[in-house]
Amino acid sequence: MASIRKILPPQPHYLTGYTGFVPGLKFHCGETYGRLTNTLFLDQRIKRSKKLVLLELGKPHEEWVSKEDKEALQNRCHDNKECRYTEDMVIGYTGHVPQYRFQDGHK
């Protein structure tokens, strides 16, 4: 049986001393959590250490949605008036809106 250490990420796999605070997070909306926190951590107006620990984000959304996927969505939604899938959907978004209660299952 393989050792558990072989499947775990190399240590340290976290930011040492990081407690989860993201300056300015509560004043922004409209982006995914990962993209927004990366933007805020790289903001030049915020004082921080000279040593960056973040990696560059990958390609923007427009570049990683393949042409075939766009065509498949357009073909699927061409005749369907209630098509809910679009190419600019936020991956992982479940529809939760904070402070919007008692609306589950209503159209």
UniProtKB/TrEMBL annotation:
Location comes to: Cytoplasm, Cytoskeleton, Cilium axoneme
Q: Which InterPro entries match?
A: CMI2A-C-like_dom
> What are the record's GO terms for cellular component?
axoneme; microtubule cytoskeleton
List each copy of the Ciliary microtubule inner protein 2A-C-like domain by range: 11-50
Task: Tell me which UniProt keywords the record has, alphabetically.
Answer: Cell projection, Cytoplasm, Cytoskeleton
Which Pfam families does the UniProt entry name for this protein?
A: CMI2B-like (PF10629)
Q: Which family does it belong to?
A: Belongs to the CIMIP2 family.
Q: Which PANTHER family match?
A: CAT EYE SYNDROME CRITICAL REGION PROTEIN 6, PROTEIN FAM166B-LIKE PROTEIN
How is this protein named in the record? Protein FAM166B-like
